[in-house]
Amino acid sequence: MDTKNTYLNLIDRVEAQVDKLPRLSEKQLNFKAAGHPNTIAWNLWHAGRVLDAMIAPVAGTEQAWDTQGYREKFGLGDAAEGTGFGHTSADAAQIVVNNKEVLVDYIKVGLENLRAFVNTIGEQQWDEIIGEFHGKPERRQDRISLVIVDSLQHIGQAAFLAGAPHNK
């Protein structure tokens, strides 16, 4: 399997994990397990924001956050201007979303945009330096890997929280 098809397969696996999330009430989406501020809603919002905000610039596209009205659909104001990286407990607590479908739709738009971008990358382009990350050169492949791993991690955390006995 070549690099492109490997990444397309990984994107499909992320989407499959999103599709497995159960039906969740507003209370379940925003429940703070053991008082931790990263709720199911925060984890899914963060996964969507990272997909959108970190891929759009390297793909040469606009963020769906702006172009498809997700900023308004979420209605979170200034609390949602970043991606969630570096959020304090107080910042994370401001991410309250009562509609799972908006969260899932945003992630799926991000995955579709990532899929479209990956389909444009030639075999020789994966190792091209696209910028810096934490003071080190960042290759196109590094960025895509980071986004996919982060998505899987936070969607997995959301799934864990959804299945926890205290969140029923």
From TrEMBL:
Domain DinB-like per the UniProt entry, residue ranges: 22-158
Top-rank taxon, per record: Bacteria
One Pfam family named in its UniProt record: DinB_2
InterPro entries xref list: DinB-like, DinB/YfiT-like
Protein name as catalogued: DinB family protein
Biological classification of the source: Bacteria, Bacillati, Actinomycetota, Actinomycetes, Mycobacteriales
